[in-house]
Amino acid sequence: MQKGRNLKVFPLQKGRNLKVLPLQKGRNLKVLPLQKGRNLKVLPLQKGRNLKVLPLQKGRNLKVFPLQKGRNLKVLPLQKGRNLKVLPLQKGRNLKVLPLRKGGFRWVCFSC
Fold first, then answer.
1. For residue range 37-46, what is the model confidence (pLDDT) as tens digits?
2. CB neighbours (10 Å) of residue 5?
């Protein structure tokens, strides 16, 4: 992607997987809801990157690898049966997870 570009991904079709390699400086990743059976895997984001993921549908999994310095991860509420796995964040990283629905934690925040 060129400088200052944003990546917006609309819903993926059945059985599709979304894998995103590192985004360049000033890039933003916004992913709309994934359909049934979809998986979202995002590799490390570079400095100044933001990752925002809208609600995942039933049976969706979200896996996010370590974020670099100054990165922010915000995940909106996950629906019933959703799983959120986040690997260790480096120094100065922020992890904000909004309330999870049934069976989830209401609030999780590391290094906030």
1. 788 888 888 7
2. 11
